[in-house]
Amino acid sequence: MFEEKVKEFEPIFYPRSIAVVGASTKLKVGSVWVWALISGGFPGPIYPVGSGGGKIGDLEIFPRLRDIPGEIDYVIVAIPRRSVLELLDDCAAKNVKAVQFFTAGFSETGTSHGYKLEKQMLEKARRAGIRIIGPNCIGTYCPEHGIPSLLGRIGKSGTVGFLSQSGGIATKLIEVGIARHINYSKGVSFGNGIDLDASDFLQYLAADTKTRAIGAYLEGTRDGTRLFNTMKGVTRAKPLVVWKGGRTEVGARAALSHTGSLASSAAVWSAMLKQAGAIEVSGLEELTDTLLILQRLDRWPGMNAAVIGGLADGGGGISVSAGDAFAESGVNLPPLSAETEEGLSKLLGEVGSILRNPVDVSQAQPRGVPTLFRAIELVAADAAIDIVLIQEDVEILLPIYSPTGLEEINRFVIELAGRQDKPVMVILPPGSAEQERLQLEQRFLAASIPVFASPERAAKAISNAGRYFCRDGA
Amino acid sequence: MFEEKVKEFEPIFYPRSIAVVGASTKLKVGSVWVWALISGGFPGPIYPVGSGGGKIGDLEIFPRLRDIPGEIDYVIVAIPRRSVLELLDDCAAKNVKAVQFFTAGFSETGTSHGYKLEKQMLEKARRAGIRIIGPNCIGTYCPEHGIPSLLGRIGKSGTVGFLSQSGGIATKLIEVGIARHINYSKGVSFGNGIDLDASDFLQYLAADTKTRAIGAYLEGTRDGTRLFNTMKGVTRAKPLVVWKGGRTEVGARAALSHTGSLASSAAVWSAMLKQAGAIEVSGLEELTDTLLILQRLDRWPGMNAAVIGGLADGGGGISVSAGDAFAESGVNLPPLSAETEEGLSKLLGEVGSILRNPVDVSQAQPRGVPTLFRAIELVAADAAIDIVLIQEDVEILLPIYSPTGLEEINRFVIELAGRQDKPVMVILPPGSAEQERLQLEQRFLAASIPVFASPERAAKAISNAGRYFCRDGA
Question: Do A109 and B171 count as a contact with CB atoms less than 8 A apart?
């Protein structure tokens, strides 16, 4: 599906050369872009363009785009809006394939001048066979091809594709991705989207073999029917998670002046997303939590989870609250099999311990870590269980097990996750040992173990991911 | 209201002396408690009791409670359940005022033996005029009086009181409190609550002049009518935030084996809490977020908030999503006054900037920090605004403003919060600069500025706090 998009979008995500218009030896957005491409390791020629002359690093700044000797696939534009039409003529003369406009001041201002300018840009581009990304956007991100974020940041190349109508949200997606090891195949922020819009990028990401799951931040669309049909096609191929901005009147008002999007009612969007088979989420946390799970799971194992808590004392309340969180998100915590319950009873005794699911293993602690490991193994081996979640309250475990004991536990969890077919995930709630918690989070994430800050967030993310795989007809 | 409780509970939260039964020179829970009291700086005599003899630090271990020469107000018990009745006789002989049982294995096991033992304990205690905290609990926390958590941790003394049926949740409340500067007057985990239960502690905290707001984690109650009437009385005096554990079948099953609580349906509890004027929350994050606000606001300023975002570029999407988050939580983001809008227009121009509420001040960045500060001042001074929220995306601000520029911004925010009557709060979303973000969070919190990790959490907490102050008849 949408296979023709792969070739069409090659100059956008894999350009052989990039020109940056609006560069200078001073600190301007255009110059920042040149530095970002250099530091990102973009493999082709980078051509800074700006009237001031001089050099950026080793790169000569060309006075005009027409002065560049070589071929140019892709142009990034950060000049005032009054010059964009002339620039498009230059692009046409140089046979440029695609132009990304950082330049703002178009339909998002609500002025007729802004709308008119957009129309003229589009006409010029269409005539010359140029595709436009933006305006009012920060454009593409493709770690595999050395295209970093505007901040010059570049994460590991992975399997998640994203699109965002907002540059700020795109930047946050990249930053949170780096922090939480959500690795992107590619992504794009397309702002006002006057030419290429959500539907186009969705079709490309659906066809892109490097992308296994897609996340989207959308504020509105000019063609709802096309977007709906596109999403229906996309979700037949891979999971699509959509965060709709501007669901409320206040949010919609902001969206209008942000990307010129007329947001429809939240209910209409929700119904549309549901019918299209997309997973709707309502914020950055939920979007990234869900992508964290989707990037790791080719096949979905099922919705039956076990939560193991109380690795130190006081697991009772943690079990109760985890039970509520999972049940309220619609994730099944089935009873353990009779054999597992019997095995746990033998290991832990009965007093003060909850041998149900959520499993409170606090009685293991006085018996030592081998008993704890055996208890976790028993639960993980239960045929009724598809997903294993382990809650660690670091600041409580540290004084009770000592750093050495906690290190043993963490090595065990990583080792268990490595040899298990079932996904193992960790809940690491904040507390008063934030340094240790953050370090541990990084270790688990590096070992491909999804980490969540609360049972509520873990439950919601699992429920979201499961909704895709458990659709009717899936 | 409930003033008689102040005197009655004095031996519980301000005991003159404490004995710990179940102490030994080995690492046992009782010994941990003795060490915790020593390190917490408990001001009165601490008497370890245990059959093995020896010393803990400088403290002699007494073979039996009866051997202690001085008077004993409070006894902490960590011995097997078979010995608790005999111990209560010893307590009666020594004229002890209150006994806290860590010991578990009672009604929470669901056995008739467990229920019977509880009944016998209660009879003995009543006859001797002894109050029981627990069993199956970790008891009291009172930083002002040197009573730390079981982990030996003690935060600053403050104005929030808490009660929890779960020891694990109580421990987490203390830990998150230390991490987020939520400072407690006192708190208690009362487990099975066979004598003193939620109603008793609520009445005490309502009467306690040191306590200005109360947080509670409850799983169930043996006397719903009394709890309801108590809560009605409490909320006339101060805000009460309740997290009900065991709202779902899975959670309720866990609650039964945790504290022996028969959880009623979530709907019944929600209706009861609402009628009693309590604020219902559904997890640890929401509870602590709400307490973070309530501890700082004696008088509630009103529900009209302004969100200022986009301190660096890309504030548009952040404004849209903040707008949605606040509107969905029922927090009003009113339009700014004409004067403020005009002032912002003059300062920032119009292109690409959202001069509404949420306010996108990204156009200030190229003009320098004085312009940014002036823009924030304008919004904060608007008469339509009661609460000022500033969103900082640290990992984006750092490269754009440099550490020096960001430092200037943060000093300005702290200074603004200090001289403003209106509360100033900060949204600090996670990203790829977690070290810097955590440091900054600590600085803001130390300056009494509430900090939240997302607009959604800030909005929810403000909405929760506002619900108390904006009740009918309040």
Answer: no
